[in-house]
Amino acid sequence: MHDQPNNPLHGVTLEQIVTRLADHYGWETLARKININCFKNDPSVKSSLKFLRKTPWARTEVENLYIATFAI
Asked: InterPro entries this protein is in (predicted)?
């Protein structure tokens, strides 16, 4: 495995990303920032992970919001 010093998400799991964003914004605000159903309808970390792992464009949006929010 290669070190990725320039990758701001290196070592951060998708679960950590979703959990931290949900804690920071709350599900309602998160759904306004990223318009996906898993944040709107009965949101949970588990349902969000299931959707995001199958939907690359949505995962990219969530990762980009994480980077922008926490400026890592």
From this structure: DNA-binding_VF530-like, SAP_dom_sf
